[in-house]
Amino acid sequence: MVENSSALISSYIPDLFNAAMALGILICCYIWLFTEKLNRAVTAMMGACLMVMFGILTQDQAFHGVDFNTIALLTGMMIIVGIAEKSGIFQYIAMWSVKKVKANPRAIMVVLAITTAFFSALLDNVTTVLLIVPVTLQITKKLNVWSLSGITA
């Protein structure tokens, strides 16, 4: 009975070590993210590589953890937003909304909220944010208002 319990305990030690290593890697990655000393993508890739190097995940497990549908969707949306920005549609929407509400900041926030709600009904949230943030930045730039106040509101 005692031999079986010691074998059982020794079988959990590698799992505890892997869990502790994974937690350590996660904490280090969060510290790097918060301090912004490294790019977010570099930090994420470094964390993933460390997980594979230390044997916490196999290469197949790491590969299957990536959702390529989401990556393709976001890449496509970023391309569309980039093209739309070059066409001037965001400047047009920004100027149209500012003129309609006569540059009243509260009314602009209401217009942006309604526009965001409309786009959210048709598109997913990430796409809506990718579309609305450039409009908000254009409005805050034209009104000489701090950009972060328009985005966080």
Textual characterization of the structure:
By secondary structure, the protein is mainly alpha-helical. The protein is 84% helix and 0% strand. It contains eight helices and no strands. It has helices at residues 2-35, 40-53, 59-64, 68-87, 89-100, 105-122, 125-142, 147-152. Helix 4 (68-87) packs parallel to helix 7 (125-142) and helix 6 (105-122) runs antiparallel to helix 7. The protein is elongated and about 65 Å long. The mean pLDDT is 80.
Strand content: under 5%
Query: Rg, please?
Result: 24 Å
- Number of H/I helices: 8
Please provide the count of β strands.
0
Briefly note the structural class of the backbone: mainly alpha
Mean pLDDT: 80
Secondary structure: helix percent: over 70%
Secondary-structure element order, N to C: HHHHHHHH
Q: Low-confidence parts, pLDDT < 50 over ≥5 residues? A: none
Q: Strand count, sense and closure of the main sheet?
A: none
**Shape by Cα distribution:** elongated
In whole angstroms, the N-to-C terminal distance is: 64 Å
Secondary-structure blueprint:
Elements: H1 2-35, H2 40-53, H3 59-64, H4 68-87, H5 89-100, H6 105-122, H7 125-142, H8 147-152
Helix pairs in contact: 1-2, 4-7, 5-7, 6-7
Provide a quick synopsis of the model.
This protein has 153 residues and is mainly alpha-helical. It has helices at 2-35, 40-53, 59-64, 68-87, 89-100, 105-122, 125-142, 147-152.
Salient structural properties:
0% strand; single chain; mainly alpha; 84% helix; 153 residues
